[in-house]
Amino acid sequence: MHSAHSCRHGSCRNDAGRYGWERTWRDACGVFGIWGPGEDVSRQTFFGLYGLQHRGQESAGIAVGDGSNVTLHADLGLVSQVFDEEIIGRLTGHVAVGHVRYSTTGSNVLANVQPMRGEHKSGPFAVSHNGNLINTAALRGEFERQGHQFTSTSDTAVIAKLIEASSADAIEDAVAEAMVQMEGAYSLGICTPDRLIAVRDPHGVRPLCIGQMDGAWVVASETCALGVVGAEFVREVLPGEVVVLDKDGQRAIQAVEPSETACCVFEFIYFARPDSHIYGKSVYMARLHMGQYLAEQAPVDADLVIGIPESAIPHAMGYAQKSDIPYGEGFIKNRYIHRTFIMPDQRLRDAGVRMKLAPLREAVAGKRLVVVDDSIVRGTTTGPEIALLREAGAKEIHLRISCPPIRFPCFYGIDTSTRKELIGSRMDVEEIRQHVGADSLAFLEMENLVKAVGLPKTNFCTACFDEMYPIAVPDAVRTSKYDFEETPA
């Protein structure tokens, strides 16, 4: 049965995004699952989701299979807000799947929280999804023409409906049939009463891996979540693959032939936790190398290198190592600003960055600073950050960005602005420099970004930089974010 309930916190919303306190894009979701008879699977999933909290802060949920049924609890809020000892104690079974969400397709309301429950002919299931389908409207429209109704606006509801509609006897075969109709990015964790299923789209846009511990199988969006529960990495789910984990071990179905690999390069730049590995590559080392290449590409005379906390710290350390300029802290981050349910007054809306970052005056006053950040999206927070350093007495501020200018929106599960809201689409580098108030500005070149990761460019989706979308986007969907015709500067 479905036990999701109304939000305990009143009118839950992500004020951080609404008022511009978020520095950059937010990834859609994190998926975690475990099959482990004898394990406290709901508690293990709770801790696994903690390890993935950086991938989504709007809602959280856990579904548990006990051999005959699937019980689900999900709500709006952080993992620690949604679950307590009493709730965890009620979620008993030997297989579970969990989810943390940031909304992309579908607004942040209770009907859209995940996992989402479904009923296949073989029994109940619950599905967690990281990514974004680009043919959601067409699929939903066809179901509605057939008389089906949806209570959710999320594309995950469409995925569940595709599985429900399959005539296949086995749930994994139903999932394979659904994949043939799905276009876009999707990494799925699916829980049935007796098995855990991991699914990845044929391009492998979003990460998904498999781990093992004491006879239990674990599935996670990132390897960092495996370590949280003491699991050892086994392998990544391959593009187009359905992996079934149950009492018979693991077995894989190549449901859809793999296409051109298109892992989102922003996993390495920003989204993934630094202690994760993707394609066998350390995210931390990739970021360190980005900073090193940035120092080679755009050197400057300065006294101190600082990074914008927390994601840009490895980038800044790499820049400092290569440039032989000392690395130091320039900001202190308020780590409790992820969400608020209290509306700030107008002064704080206008200067929201002050709630998140405080400059260290003694560290930056009178200094020529190299300020390293992972990206600039809208440019709405970069200017205030530089202004804070000016107020603290910084003599010069040289801004270095560890990726190329973001010029084009994402359609594969990242919360991006429309094209006209992307500052890199409206302005050239000098105009951006003037807009944010830096003394100099440089972006990491694509060639150096690829070298920093250490894998061929053909492994990645880089469409936000170069408009080379690996999965064809329907015109109607593309137009929704392409709302002006000017050629980017």
Description:
By secondary structure, this protein is of the alpha+beta class. It folds into two domains: 245 residues, Glutamine Phosphoribosylpyrophosphate, subunit 1, domain 1 (4-Layer Sandwich), CATH 3.60.20; 202 residues, Rossmann fold (3-Layer(aba) Sandwich), CATH 3.40.50.2020. It has 20 helices and 23 strands. The strands form six sheets. A seven-stranded antiparallel β-sheet has the order 3-2-4-1-10-9-11. A hairpin with a 2-residue loop joins strand 15 and strand 16. The longest helix has 15 residues. It is globular and about 70 Å long. The N and C termini lie far apart (54 Å).
CATH class of the largest domain: Alpha Beta
Beta-strand share of residues: 15-25%
Strand order of the largest sheet: 3-2-4-1-10-9-11
Assign the CATH architecture of the largest domain.
4-Layer Sandwich
CATH fold naming of the largest domain: Glutamine Phosphoribosylpyrophosphate, subunit 1, domain 1
Count every helix, treating DSSP H or I runs of 4 or more residues as helices. 20
Give the termini distance in whole angstroms: 54 Å
- Share in helix: 25-40%
- Count of DSSP strands: 23
As residue ranges, the low-confidence spans are 1-24, 339-344
Radius of gyration: 22 Å
What does the average pLDDT come to? 89
What is the assigned CATH homologous superfamily of the largest domain? Answer: Aminohydrolase, N-terminal nucleophile (Ntn) domain
Overall structural domain count: 2
Helical/strand content category:
alpha+beta
Shape: globular
The description of the largest β-sheet is:
7 strands, antiparallel
